[in-house]
């Protein structure tokens, strides 16, 4: 589906505030409310807009620590991969997981209350997934730019 300049403006506005009323989005995009509403519905139907969710502050929820965990599997057999991915999907403290190229197989983003909690998640959960060989953790000291906006060029 081709995305035109109006769609880009709508998407940029919704990335700023997805709860913004259609009339306000229309104001910012120089369109009237009806075409904006129609375009938003089309962007949703076409899967450009996948959904809407609040952006939560992990620190205010007691999750003071953020870490990236690099994980290697023993072997790349279907069973190992399926068990690993299933365990990751069931772990609430894993907020993102990516299969990656390079020395490691997965990059896992974990949130935790503190270093001790991260240790528990790593030692008692991630390392105990059948088929996991190596785990390396990188603790985030400061987030310079949070991952919230996609470039709309």
UniProtKB/TrEMBL annotation:
<dbReference type="InterPro" id="IPR036390">
    <property type="entry name" value="WH_DNA-bd_sf"/>
</dbReference>
<keyword id="KW-0238">DNA-binding</keyword>
<dbReference type="InterPro" id="IPR011008">
    <property type="entry name" value="Dimeric_a/b-barrel"/>
</dbReference>
<dbReference type="InterPro" id="IPR019888">
    <property type="entry name" value="Tscrpt_reg_AsnC-like"/>
</dbReference>
<dbReference type="InterPro" id="IPR019885">
    <property type="entry name" value="Tscrpt_reg_HTH_AsnC-type_CS"/>
</dbReference>
<dbReference type="InterPro" id="IPR036388">
    <property type="entry name" value="WH-like_DNA-bd_sf"/>
</dbReference>
<keyword id="KW-0805">Transcription regulation</keyword>
<dbReference type="InterPro" id="IPR000485">
    <property type="entry name" value="AsnC-type_HTH_dom"/>
</dbReference>
<dbReference type="Pfam" id="PF01037">
    <property type="entry name" value="AsnC_trans_reg"/>
</dbReference>
<dbReference type="Pfam" id="PF13412">
    <property type="entry name" value="HTH_24"/>
</dbReference>
<dbReference type="InterPro" id="IPR019887">
    <property type="entry name" value="Tscrpt_reg_AsnC/Lrp_C"/>
</dbReference>
<dbReference type="InterPro" id="IPR011991">
    <property type="entry name" value="ArsR-like_HTH"/>
</dbReference>
<keyword id="KW-0804">Transcription</keyword>
<protein>
    <submittedName>
        <fullName>Lrp/AsnC family transcriptional regulator</fullName>
    </submittedName>
</protein>
<feature type="domain" description="HTH asnC-type">
    <location>
        <begin position="3"/>
        <end position="64"/>
    </location>
</feature>
């Amino acid at each position: 589906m081709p995305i035109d300049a109006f769609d880009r403006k709508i998407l940029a506005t919704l990335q700023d505030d997805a709860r913004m009323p259609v009339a306000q989005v229309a104001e910012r995009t120089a369109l009237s409310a009806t075409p904006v509403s129609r375009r938003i519905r089309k962007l949703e139907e076409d899967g450009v807009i996948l959904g809407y969710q609040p952006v939560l502050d992990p620190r205010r929820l007691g999750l003071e620590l953020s870490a990236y965990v690099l994980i290697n599997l023993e072997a790349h057999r279907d069973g190992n991969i399926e068990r690993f991915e299933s365990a990751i999907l069931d772990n609430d403290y894993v907020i993102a997981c990516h299969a990656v190229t390079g020395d490691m197989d997965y990059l896992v983003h974990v949130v935790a209350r503190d270093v001790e909690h991260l240790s528990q998640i790593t030692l008692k959960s991630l390392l105990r997934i059948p088929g996991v060989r190596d785990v390396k953790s990188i603790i985030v000291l400061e987030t310079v730019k949070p991952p919230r906006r996609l470039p709309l060029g």
